[in-house]
Automatic annotation (TrEMBL):
GO terms for molecular function: sterol 24-C-methyltransferase activity. This is Methyltransferase. Its EC number is 2.1.1.-. Residues 54-341 form the SAM-dependent methyltransferase Erg6/SMT-type domain. Gene3D superfamilies: Vaccinia Virus protein VP39. The gene is SMT1. Belongs to the class I-like SAM-binding methyltransferase superfamily. Erg6/SMT family.
Amino acid sequence: MSKSGAFDLASGVGGKIEKKQVQSAVDQYEKYHVYFGGDEETRKTNYSDMVNKYYDLATSFYEFGWGESFHFAPRWKGESLRESIKRHEHFLALQLGLKSGMKVLDVGCGIGGPLREIARFSSTSITGLNNNDYQISRAIELSRVAGLSEPCNFVKADFMNMPLPDNTFDAIYAIEATCHAPDALGCYKEIYRVLKPGQCFAAYEWCVTDHFDPQNESHQKTKAEIELGNGLPDIRSTSQCIDALKLAGFEVIWEKDLAIDSPVSWYLPLDTTRFSITSFRLTTFGRAVTRTMVKALEFLKLAPAGSDRVSSFLEKAAEGLVEGGRKEIFTPMFFFLARKPVSDS
Ligand SMILES: C[S@@+](CC[C@H](N)C(=O)[O-])C[C@H]1O[C@@H](n2cnc3c(N)ncnc32)[C@H](O)[C@@H]1O
């Protein structure tokens, strides 16, 4: 069943972490980040612990605010947020030429919102791979309720080391997930290994753009906010992603930052200057209401201690994302389509 009520949010905070351990998990998570004295090297070495803590703590907030698909989308005027999210998923399916009978892998599948939509849209069988136990349990339950247990299945595993045979899939995609990898090359090599020769991998990557200046303090502050609020070890540039794809052995067919031509900015749902009834929970006012509600539920012991701190670092994420989008130094939709050559020679 969909878990989008206030009590679902409260009871889900912490995911598979024991409720009395949530506060200390928040402490440990925060300490990984620059804001709390952490550094990139420690985040990279401990990426599995850092990312899993993040998703245990944040998933019920995501489900409450975004629904079942945890990603942004370029948007046309007059299009709702939900419509744009689905269209962004359909775009990937079309780029990969998905057709009935194909075996597809979704790398970092969240709770399976995109996977269910793409399976319905393209009549394919899709395996969702995800390293977070809590999200996998939500993905299995939501797929069962949607009547999609047959074409959709899930594997709990790390995308840096997949327990899957070589040359298995007819297509692979990743939506705003491989940004969590401690090293893009290692992750793309694994994807290359499990993809059949001649077949394609498409992704939406989170990247800093060419406007990002590492010497600029305010750019670095925005980057650190995005890392803290989103469980990221680092944020790569678009060219680092393309170089890593090529080094892994892929031919890059085309790539583009889809944020550039989007008539409605992707960060608009989080922007302080905007109000929307249909995505009220994402607006500044909606987020303030959620924060007050979480505080009250924590006070009443209906939400675990530490819940309010989770909503606070998610608030930092929203601020960083809007800043990154406005300054055009960050994009969550650097798209690429890449092919594994038929022969390695
Ligand atoms: C922002 S969410 C996107 C989820 C999904 N693609 C969507 O759009 O709804 C990123 C996902 O990547 C997964 N992830 C992060 N690091 C991972 C790893 N090392 N191995 C497998 N999955 C990972 C997270 O657990 C989470 O499900």
